[in-house]
């Protein structure tokens, strides 16, 4: 087993129409407004940007995200990631009655030297840190979507 490789899946159930959820998720520049652990997104060009995240652990993770797929009809947004994390991440947005499911899938290899050195003993902590980040993101997006709908 390569201890520096991770596969994550999260499902966010959101009380908003799929088009609203997709619109929010495709605006990566706005993530720092509603996702506390996404500290900075700097656009490079129309399809890529530099991202800096930090959760509970005392270090930043930075990577370049490059859009691979943007398919509103299928509800799919996918990026390739290079930097402290190499791999990909994908949002899949689907309707489920009165709510929307936003599924997040990610497969990455950690390249940040500190995280690689701590790969075996730190793995449970890294996974817990990711889970906390995803929970905060879900809460933040729910509030952001509520505020956006009230502003209209």
From TrEMBL:
Q: Which CDD domains match?
A: SRPBCC_6 (cd07824)
Residues forming the Coenzyme Q-binding protein COQ10 START domain are 14-132
Instruction: From the Swiss-Prot or TrEMBL record, give the protein name.
Output: SRPBCC family protein
Task: Provide the species name.
Answer: Streptomyces sp. R21
């Amino acid at each position: 087993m390569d201890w520096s490789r991770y596969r994550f899946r999260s499902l966010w159930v959101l009380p908003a129409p799929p088009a609203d959820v997709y619109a929010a998720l495709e605006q990566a520049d706005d993530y720092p407004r509603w996702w506390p652990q996404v500290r900075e997104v700097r656009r490079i060009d129309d399809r890529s940007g530099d991202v800096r995240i930090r959760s509970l652990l005392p270090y930043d993770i930075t990577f370049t995200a490059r859009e691979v797929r943007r398919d509103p009809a299928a509800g799919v947004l996918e990026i390739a990631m290079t930097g402290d994390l190499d791999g990909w991440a994908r949002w899949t947005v689907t309707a489920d009655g009165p709510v929307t499911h936003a599924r997040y899938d990610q497969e990455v290899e950690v390249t940040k030297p500190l995280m690689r050195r701590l790969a075996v003993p730190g793995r449970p902590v890294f996974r817990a840190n990711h889970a906390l980040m995803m929970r905060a993101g879900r809460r933040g997006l729910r509030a952001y979507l509520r505020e956006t709908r009230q502003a209209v």
